[in-house]
């Protein structure tokens, strides 16, 4: 019981804290506070301490006589401490907020003081400047004063707002301190409990310490005893060591076993992870491929849709155009018809959208019902199953769904949606929930359906017919349904109709409840029947079961008049109205007690909705007060204004008792809400049923004719605007505010009639509570005028000038029946400026009187009438009065005027033209300002002949406060000093003089033309003009300081970055001579403009890419959403999933970072040329003339220059769009650069020109130097608008130098000049082989060998080359002398060989070169591969290779030679036995088999010994045996018959040897004549030579020796 009491106290504390507006923060919120607050928070590990304390026996009870401390009490203490800490933290936060608000308020006040000081300073400065008549400074200072006043007003508003917030915070802090003070007693209790808790904790700690000491002492004693026991029974050392080693071995084996299992398991897991990783990677690759294909398909679909949309748009435009034409032909208004058609389409589209929303809403309703069904099913599973009542028919789930959808279709009929809903219900319902679906869906239908839309019941209930049970079924029915059928007991007296019990109160009402609170009520049930009765609780309504708990103990039998109690507890968790009943059973019948729960609402009303001020004289002020009372428990905010509220259709709640027609018309009103607004008056706002009827009428009007609905809406709005325009009735200071529960607010309404007549105004009190409807108040009043009044009470004199007379009439009207005397009053300050004639008069009965008002403002008006005249704005407003005899209140009227000056001011008092040449004109600009507020005409009259004033020859009109720049042109006709005055006369005949002076001079040099007017010149073209600069020696300057006659230096100074070029720009001119001056105008585009255009194009491209990406994204999202229409998107679906992967953002570049001459630069130039508009520029170029040559002592010194001799050349330069532009990217700044080209090489480049004009152009070109390197390869032709033509140019330099020429492409409108540049460079190419013989040696037939030639380019340009074989060059012809010399003239001589030797049988050249031609880059090298590939044995293979550069120079000439063998061993040397040229025909078939092993090959070797002066030198010859590749049988050679050779003087060295693969072995043959040899005798001998390889071959070497006198 004590624990429950403690918990109840804590509950009371929580209930006490809940009504306040402060909430306790959780532990997570506390973690987010500052470090100081974290330190102040209590230890949150108190739960562990509680568990420890709970485990201790000492905490369960206190020593002595104190009560034991429980776990709940300790938990309560910690929770209370935490909540108290949170309250302290809230208080500190509010104090900090209050200090911050005070600091902000101090800062605002300091700022306001500063602004006040600035305003005072500005006001003093304005007064000072007004005294000084400095109007410009006054205007500037007034603007500053206005800004300061605006800032001051804004700061004051902020200060007021901050002050209010500060007061609110102080009030809130005070309230909070009061709330905190309520817990002071509780705080003391918590402190006392904490003190006790800490004492107990200390005591427990001491006890635990003592216990630990005892335990440790016991443990030490046990250890000592164990040691003594071990010492008494020692083991042998050997046994212990052996046992330890065995245990260690067993442990190691077991550890090794587990380690192996662990390693195997880790390897298996690693393999599984690797397999999963590969599978994941494969899935990602497939997903990427699928995504790529989807993106491509999406792009293609997007393109198709775009083209389809464009086609549909064009089709619609054509249809509209044809419709317009046809309607114009019929005389109808096509615009109105098309607008009406579009309006109808818009209405139809809105109707379709509304239908779609209806369908979606129905689906949401069904989903909501199913969700609630599942929730109730889960609750019903836990509750006991109710018994089925007898006679109650249970509907099947399908039947219930059909009834539900029939109700939905009655509001929104749609067969398709019904089928969809049925499918959803069938799919969502499970077998386990089928038994609960009937009750749930029936309850939802009863809650949602309206009485007029209910279906007829399928069966008749007991309430419709009298049903009598048979005798044998009465007992059964009574047992089955005791709650519904009871046999009433009859008393002795009269039976009372109705319930047997009454409840007090009759209705259990929980009014103005709050969610989370708990409410209890007691209900007394009294037996009012005539018998002893009993009462039993049956059930409570289903909608109240979750919120209401009934505590009712059945009292047993109750006599008549006896009562019993029932306690009902209400704990709301939703903020909705609830209604139901509690069912009881008595002996006679069942009775019910109604239960009603209502939330907090606003119940607003006013004491009067109609205010009648009655009749009052104009000028009086009457105040009336109305009281607004809130009888509800919910506070709201109200506002009082004249704006009529327009109720929205979706906010009109249809009550349950409305008719079916009204319910069916509501969707119509929703559909036509945008077409026509709902016109409501005061009564319509108050009565919701009237609103429904008005909505119905408006919907019918808008359905029949939308235009009529819009007209009706505009008429209603105009009527309401007219009613609210009245300003005689206004609202008091209280226009809006908050009204609390059960409070009242007084609102003031003021009536001040200004004009006679009845005034009505509708006021509306609106509320922020959506359930509270506006309250309309009708205010009415009538103003009664005076008997005498001024017809025009405001006499506006408009804008008047000083010292000008203005007149106006003042008319008075009388409604009396007697004559009245009138006296016009005039203020003393205005007597100098204003006069009324007559001052006194008589106004006859029922007539009018007119007086004349004369107004002549003087310049002293600001000083005389500073009270009525504003000097800053010039506004004069004078209140005037007319005294009427017998009338107390005078007649008031006001005279208004704006007085302005009529001055014309010049920005300078005197114009100095300076020195002016008699050949030139000097222009000086003067700014003339109209100081008046009226336009003034002006004109310069009486001008001298040497002065001209522009524009418009010095005549014109100046608008108010307008400043006009006037050009005064002075042209001196003589060399003298001029002083004159120009007179400017205004439209009111005022003259304003302007003094001028000038000095006329005669310069030494003169230009033939001082004005050059160029014709329209296209951008890229140029125009020239020829001028002469003459030294006129006969002219004498009248100046006294004339220098001596001599040569003059001149210099033209052209503007920087201009399109003007003067040649020569400087020079020296002798007396009596003249110089030709060439002026060239070549318009161009500025680099800055081109860079800005490039920046704009980049931004445009970026925007286009973003739009395309956005469109693609929308199309993809739409296409993805179409298959899932009607279904909810997946929660994981994001917009980024549809983003196109191919969209790459365009990087923006600053204009300064764009390189001149780059691709973007040229694209921007082309864009500007295509959009170029004509422009006109004027340049005035000075020509400075010196007083003579520099002094002879120092010719480099600067000569003297005089401004008297300066000449001026004026150029008028119009630039137009070029008709012809260059559109090629290889043209930079109208220059085609061929770069460096090797001498003799020919490079071709092309560029295109485009015609951007609207007419055809005939193109021509200028002639290029016929001896130069540039050549135009194609002819020019005429091109039409938008067409292009390509020009091909060749550059072939012949010398090593730089070339430059200009090609002009001409048409009849412009000349396009293109600069051709190039540089000739001599190529520096070297070869790894200098030339001569290139021997490939022996090669097996049908095999090949190669040799690489390296070509090195040392020059700075690429050089082309060609590799040409003599045998493949058809241009090279072989002369007959070569063939004759070979065939007839000593063919046996081995030194004579043809250039082209034996060739292959297959017709291909035996030598090949790769590459045949090419180009070697600068500072690079190139490999040329020469390949020898014979197809039959021969030793006469030869050819010639020539490497030639592009300039026809030969780099090197190589003689190619090679031999082919059919075996791997070969013999080389000896005399030639056949001609070196073989036939290309293959040998006969019989001879193709080749020699056999027994066939000998003849070889002839001739040895010639030399005889000289009696001495014979032996003859020596050499043979070579070579091996191409190794053989398994060995490679060697052997000589036979060596003895016979030696007998004849022959000697062989070596006679036998082996030859390695790829080498040659030399055999030296020597013949020494024997003694007795005859000189003319020839020694001959045949010796066999055997060569062994893969095959053995025998050569019959014939040695022929002789002695010769001379041997070469």
Q: How does this structure look, described?
A:
32% of the residues lie in helices and 31% in strands. The chain has 1608 residues and is of the alpha+beta class. 18% of the residues are buried. Residues 1-66, 386-401, 407-494, 648-726, 1035-1044, 1126-1146, 1375-1391 and 1485-1494 have low confidence and may be disordered.
Low-confidence stretches: 1-66, 386-401, 407-494, 648-726, 1035-1044, 1126-1146, 1375-1391, 1485-1494
Gyration radius, rounded: 61 Å
**How much helicity do the residues have?**
25-40%
Shape: flat
Number of strands: 75
* Count of DSSP-assigned helices: 22
Q: How much is the average pLDDT? A: 77
Instruction: Give the N-to-C terminal Cα separation.
Output: 148 Å
Q: How many strands, what sense, and barrel or not for the largest sheet?
A: 6 strands, mixed
Portion of residues in beta strands equals 25-35%
User: What structural category characterises the helix and strand content?
Assistant: alpha+beta
Task: Provide the fold topology.
Layout: H1 2-17, H2 27-31, H3 35-40, H4 46-55, H5 71-131, H6 135-181, H7 184-232, H8 237-330, H9 334-382, H10 397-411, H11 415-428, H12 434-448, H13 471-480, E1 501-504, E2 507-513, E3 519-527, E4 535-540, E5 548-551, E6 563-570, E7 578-586, E8 590-599, E9 604-606, E10 610-617, E11 622-630, E12 636-641, H14 660-671, H15 682-686, H16 688-704, H17 706-724, E13 729-731, E14 736-739, E15 744-751, E16 757-767, E17 775-784, E18 788-790, E19 794-801, E20 806-814, E21 820-824, E22 834-837, E23 840-843, E24 848-855, H18 861-864, E25 869-870, E26 875-884, E27 891-900, E28 904-906, E29 910-917, E30 922-930, E31 936-941, E32 947-950, E33 955-958, E34 963-970, E35 977-986, E36 991-1001, E37 1005-1007, E38 1011-1013, E39 1017-1018, E40 1023-1031, E41 1048-1052, E42 1060-1063, E43 1066-1069, E44 1074-1081, H19 1087-1121, H20 1159-1170, E45 1175-1185, E46 1207-1216, E47 1220-1222, E48 1231-1238, E49 1243-1251, E50 1257-1258, E51 1260-1261, E52 1270-1272, E53 1278-1279, E54 1284-1291, E55 1298-1306, E56 1311-1321, E57 1325-1327, E58 1332-1340, E59 1345-1353, E60 1359-1365, ...
Parallel strand pairs: 2-8, 10-17, 19-27, 29-36, 38-46, 39-46, 48-56, 58-65, 67-75
Antiparallel strand pairs: 1-3, 3-6, 4-7, 5-6, 7-8, 9-11, 11-15, 12-14, 12-16, 13-15, 16-17, 18-20, 20-24, 21-23, 21-26, 22-24, 25-26, 26-27, 28-30, 30-34, 31-33, 31-35, 32-34, 35-36, 37-40, 40-44, 41-43, 41-45, 42-44, 45-46, 47-49, 49-54, 50-53, 51-55, 52-54, 55-56, 57-59, 59-63, 60-62, 60-64, ...
Helix pairs in contact: 1-5, 4-5, 5-6, 5-7, 9-11, 9-12, 10-11, 10-12, 14-16, 16-17, 19-20
